[in-house]
Design brief:
Helix content of chain A: 40-55%
Largest sheet of chain B: 5 strands, parallel
Strand content of chain A: 15-25%
Helix content of chain B: 40-55%
Distance between the termini of chain A: 39 Å
Oligomer: heterodimer
Largest interface: A-B, 62 and 58 residues
Radius of gyration of chain A: 22 Å
Structural class of chain A: alpha/beta
Largest sheet of chain A: 6 strands, parallel
Number of strands of chain B: 14
Radius of gyration of chain B: 22 Å
Distance between the termini of chain B: 42 Å
Number of helices of chain A: 18
Shape of chain B: globular
Shape of chain A: globular
Number of strands of chain A: 14
Strand content of chain B: 15-25%
């Protein structure tokens, strides 16, 4: 990938286990069993326990020294899975870990045994901290669901579009309505919002990923189902949606005329906020891959995007990287975070898009900081949601997260002078 | 394998990282995988960190195949380059320890050319848990840094124990400082929270040591007593009588007569009022004694999750008639609380959720809790002011 510079040090991202958080909000009836050491269990607990739900969508299967020595975990795992099933889980996902990978635990076999004994769907997601970013967690879960259930799902016949990636019902409604207005035949979403929602993928399906971190799932779509995959820019921002829908329209030889009007309307809705943001010099310090399409959107909105870094790049980003090259945005793979901060200071960057864990630190360095985690939960796909990308909620009412700002600035100043927040 | 819904203690690497991050000039390098840097999340979100105190070596599949040496060394070199006059503590994560690679040779080779002092944590990555790892880290730093020194001119003490691990650490630090100050005694050093490496070096100047968190301090307290003849008081000043007991203990060591007021609890709770406690053993024991012995409550359930303290915890409360439980199984604790039917629950975040289900009043008095509770907490239960706060909690709960 010649568009990117490679660095390879001092990165920071969350373990892919973090995906349990947003995935379980979008898929009803799922229960994750995290099989790992205390590090894994504590990470999941500290990240997700504050949701305040009585029945949490995860259990912690803690490996102890005797398990590591023997590798025999089926019986205790069965007990944990039974309890999850009693709690109403329709789908149990066994989630691996670094320890499970080192032990070479065969999660697929365990899932198969559990499925036959419990009569609920069980999938095995070989996740671990060896992966480079939190987005990888969703990729691993979806590819596991594709392998286990993709062939048994319903619907999806003929030359129809399947959208790949976890989505809320609200986002699905937006995308469905826009595709209908454009005359695009939509088979559905994979994985949808529950087991009965899962759409079947066939050789005739036209599959498009909604997020940039789904490379493993896309391989499964191609290799196991023989479906055609398109990799245009992602439907984030008016520019991304125009490219995204435009690629489908071209592929299916549909009438392109309604598209420009929809794009213009979305641009008009974001214009005021974009004008404020256009004063900014921005740097995106990535912890997953979501930063790549967002960098493209921000650059197209007129911000001076100095660079975007990300732990790793994948083939599904080809379209996005081409756009970033055209926009003269530097892309760095595996960036050294400390070096990036120095570079941001040297270039006079004032707005940083960075990892939530580093938000206080970035703030202390004088940067107005937008935590990237906001965008893992934000409704931002489709023309109708394009405005949300430039309106991160200052007080965290929608996202549970706040925009971090340098201490010397008052919130009111930010709202009135800097044009950020509501 | 254990199926758990709630962990009371984090892993060893977390205990090391949170202890080291409490200290100015100490950095933690977690010898772990790419996804093992999560202690930084807790520090970064819960506290206004203006530096990056924890980094992970970031082992990936390449290292799984070809060995960790090259990556570990380059991470050490980078950390050494970024830090100045610091101590870098290397802590293995549980999964990294399963690779069974000998890192001592790399560390020995590195030590000859580094700018900063590098220490390999003695905490066992799997067997030790958060509190034990924190205790070992404090001890290790004390052993590395404390240097013989003349005693201060006036009587002084070190306050050992406040750290990022404790939910009320800042409040405890202030409360203990006030108690010590009320005796006319100086505070030589407070650690690890907010301490510098120099504070560790000058620990032996104090005449004695006190603690706000005995569970993570006992190793260092014993070491300082043995190596520098510094006696210590390990009791926590909880309740009016507990505070007097603490003062008497310190007075005996330092040769002063306790001048703590003779204030007594004039609050008489309802006879049928019931309180359930879940906390580290010394805090749970102190609170249970205050409630049962000073306030005369018959219905007190005291629970601790540090299993190593089982016998001592039970013995400590045997005379008070308090029912004790020592377990780290949240289901057992939940079951016991539900059958006990308390009016007030003082525990971790988990028990605050149990309280929601049982409609009891609740207050979070111990980690683990959500990182945002740390920012809101820091209300100490130590000393006479702490005792008044406990009475306030009881009053608000309808006692």
């Amino acid at each position: 990938m010649s568009e990117a510079e490679r660095s390879g040090a001092c990165q920071y991202s969350w373990c892919p286990l973090a995906a349990i958080g947003w995935f379980s909000r979008r898929f009803e009836g799922v229960h994750f069993i995290s099989i790992g050491l205390r590090e894994c269990a504590h990470f999941v607990q500290m990240g997700l326990s504050r949701r305040g739900e009585r029945e949490l969508p995860f259990s912690l299967a803690l490996l102890e020294e005797e398990d590591i020595a023997s590798g025999e975990i089926y019986e205790p795992l069965l007990g944990i899975a039974k309890e999850a099933a009693r709690g109403g889980a329709e789908l149990i996902v066994l989630v691996g870990s670094c320890a499970a990978e080192i032990m070479k635990l065969d999660l697929k076999s365990l899932a198969k045994r559990l499925r036959s004994e419990l009569e609920v769907e069980v999938a095995a997601a070989h996740s671990s901290g060896f992966f480079k970013g939190e987005g990888d967690g969703e990729d691993i879960i979806i590819s596991a669901l594709l392998e286990e259930m993709g062939g048994r799902a319903q619907g999806g016949s003929g030359r129809e579009v399947v959208l790949l990636g976890s989505t809320s019902r609200e986002t699905q409604a937006v995308l469905r309505a826009e595709m209908e207005a454009l005359g695009i035949p939509l088979a559905g979403f994979f994985p949808g919002n529950c087991l009965s929602d899962m759409v079947r993928i066939t050789e005739e399906s036209l599959v498009l990923p909604l997020y940039p971190y789904l490379s493993k799932s896309l391989r499964t779509v191609k290799n196991s189902f023989g479906a055609k995959v398109l990799n245009p820019p992602f439907p984030m921002g008016a520019d991304g949606c125009e490219d995204f829908y435009g690629a489908i329209i071209k592929e299916l030889s549909l009438d392109p005329s309604p598209l420009a009007k929809m794009a213009d309307q979305a641009r008009a809705e974001t214009a005021e906020r974009a004008a404020h943001l256009a004063l900014r010099r921005m740097m995106l310090m990535g912890s997953g891959l979501i930063e790549i399409p967002l960098a493209r959107t921000f650059a197209n909105l007129g911000l001076k995007v100095e660079s975007v870094s990300t732990p790793s790049l994948s083939g599904s980003l080809k379209g996005e990287l081409k756009r970033l090259t055209e926009l003269e945005v530097e892309v760095i793979e595996g960036a050294d975070l400390c070096a990036q901060i120095e570079r941001a200071k040297a270039k006079g960057v004032d707005l940083v898009f960075g990892h939530l864990s580093l938000a206080h630190f970035l703030k202390s360095q004088g940067f107005l900081t937008v935590p990237s985690a906001i965008y893992l939960r934000l409704e931002m796909l489709g023309f109708a949601n394009a405005k949300n990308i430039v309106e991160p909620d200052l007080y965290g009412k929608l996202t549970g997260l706040a925009l971090f700002y340098p201490q010397e600035l008052e919130k009111d100043d930010l709202i009135t002078i800097k044009g950020l927040g509501r | 394998m254990r199926g758990l819904k709630w962990l009371y203690e984090g892993p060893a690497s977390y205990g090391v990282a949170m202890t080291a991050a409490s200290i100015e000039g100490a950095k933690t390098l977690i010898l772990g995988m790419l996804g093992d840097g999560y202690p930084l999340s807790e520090i970064g979100l819960g506290f206004e960190a203006d530096s990056i105190p924890v980094t992970s070596v970031g082992l990936g599949r390449r290292e799984l195949s070809f060995g960790i040496g090259e990556r570990f060394l380059s991470a050490l070199e980078r950390q050494d380059e970024l830090a100045q006059d610091s101590v870098i503590i290397v802590a293995e994560s549980g999964a990294a320890s399963m690779l069974k690679e000998d890192t001592s040779l790399i560390l020995e080779g590195f030590k000859s050319k580094n700018r900063n002092r590098v220490i390999l944590s003695k905490a066992h990555p799997i067997r030790d848990l958060e509190y034990k790892a924190a205790e070992k880290t404090l001890l290790q730093l004390g052993q590395e840094l404390a240097a013989p020194a003349q005693r201060s001119k006036n009587p002084s003490v070190n306050i050992i124990g406040p750290s990022l691990l404790g939910i009320n650490s800042k409040g405890d630090m202030r409360a203990m400082g006030e108690i010590i100050g009320s005796f006319g005694i100086e505070v030589n050093a407070v650690l690890p929270l907010g301490a510098t490496l120099h504070d560790f070096a000058t620990l032996p100047k104090a005449w004695a040591n006190v603690t706000t968190s005995p569970e993570i301090s006992v190793g260092l307290l014993s070491f300082l007593e043995k190596e520098f003849s510094q006696p210590y008081v390990s009791d926590l000043p909880i309740g009016f009588e507990g505070t007097r007991r603490f003062a008497r203990g310190l007075g005996e060591i330092l040769g002063f007569e306790s001048r703590v007021d003779t204030h007594k609890a004039d609050f008489k709770p309802r006879a049928d009022f019931r309180v359930a406690l879940v906390a580290p053993p010394e805090l749970a024991e102190g609170l249970a004694k205050f409630l049962s012995e000073e306030l005369g409550l018959k219905g007190v359930l005291a629970s601790t999750f540090l299993k190593g303290y089982r016998d001592r915890f039970a013995e400590g409360l045997a005379a008070s008639g308090v029912k004790t439980i020592t377990t780290d199984d949240s289901d057992i604790i939940k079951g016991e609380i539900e059958s006990f039917e308390p009016d007030l629950i003082l525990g971790t975040y988990n028990e605050s959720m149990v309280a929601e289900e049982t409609h009891a009043a609740a207050s979070i008095i111990s980690a683990p809790a959500d990182r945002f509770h740390f920012a809101q907490a820091n209300i100490s239960l130590l000393g006479t002011k702490g005792a008044e706060r406990i009475l306030g909690l009881l009053t608000r709960a309808g006692a």
